[in-house]
Amino acid sequence: MKLYCLDGGYINTEWQFIVAGYRTGEPFKSPMCMFLIDHPKGKVLFDTGLNIACASDPYAYYSKEILGPYQPVMTEEQAAKNVIKTAGFKPEDIDFVVVSHLHFDHTGGIGDFPNATYIVHQKELEYAYNPPVYQLSAYLRKDFDNKGIDWHVLRGELEGGFDLFDDDSIRLYLTPGHTAGHMSMRVKLPNTGNVMLTQDACYTTVNLSGKLPGLMDHAQATLISTKFFQMRQKGGTMIIPGHDPELWPTVKKAPEFYD
Questions:
Q1: Are 80 and 49 in contact (CB under 8 A)?
Q2: Using CA atoms, how far apart are residues 111 and 114, in angstroms rounded to an integer?
Q3: Within 10 A of 41 (CB to CB), how many other CB atoms are there?
Q4: 46 near 100, Cβ under 8 Å?
Q5: Is 197 helix (H, G, I), strand (E, B) or coil?
Q6: 235 — phi, psi (to 5°)?
Q7: Which phi and psi angles does 177 have, rounded to 5°?
Q8: Which of 15, 140, 211, 254 has a CA between 20 and 30 Å from the CA of residue 247?
């Protein structure tokens, strides 16, 4: 089994949107992190990054509400359906697309993988179609609505994690706080050991220390999810936060991999 980390471009924003009240006004270059797991029973893509339209004209695709605080930058090669080629795969090869949550910077490639089953949590689907006003601009419905895809909807609290292949190699955990139905992924590799892909449940290592993010649905739920990651880290799990501009350059990128 191999874990590939995929570079999907970045978003120019500011620190206070990532860590509440922290380094206010300072620029923050937020990497768009995607992951591909090559498992004997199937190839799994975790999140699909920005929409390929962003490469040519983000102002034509995204709303002014998005482009106010968040300015996305990417090339066509960094779109999900293309960046997987750096790991040696084609869109038709992907068996599962796991969606951590349905914010615009994680859903741009939904529909581009014709043979994939798409996995999302029920709470996230419900939240995405009826978000609170402070999260309204983060959901771009045209990215995930009416795509004619095969959704596999997870339900409940996923206590102990949803075991994707029934072999403890990939588990999905409900990690709310950023959104109501956010999921994170734990990958158990033969040599590297446990790797936790937090996505937006923990933006950076600064958030991992307990500092709240700038955008969240529920502060208490965020702290509980953070505690979950902290406990895993103490147990030896490698943590890869979802948007860390300092850690991400140190992570192996496809075609390199963790095994």
A1: yes
A2: 7
A3: 14
A4: yes
A5: strand
A6: -85, 5
A7: 135, -60
A8: 140
Q: Give residue-wise pLDDT tens across range 68-123.
A: 889 999 999 999 999 999 999 999 999 999 999 999 999 999 999 999 999 999 99
Beta-strand ranges (E) seen in the chain are 2-14, 27-39, 42-46, 71-73, 96-98, 117-121, 150-154, 162-163, 170-174, 183-189, 193-199, 238-241
The H or E element that residue 80 is part of is helix 80-83
Q: Can you give the pLDDT at residue 22?
A: 87
Task: Dihedral sign for Cα 148, 102, 12, 33, please.
Answer: negative
Chain segment 12-40, per-residue pLDDT in tens: 999 998 998 888 889 999 999 999 999 99
Q: Which helix (H) or strand (E) holds 207?
A: helix 205-208
Total-model pTM? 0.96
CB 99 within 8 A of CB 124: yes
CB neighbour list of residue 232: distance below 8 Å, 6 or more residues apart: 186, 194, 196, 239
**Interatomic CA distance for residues 37 and 8, integer angstroms:** 16
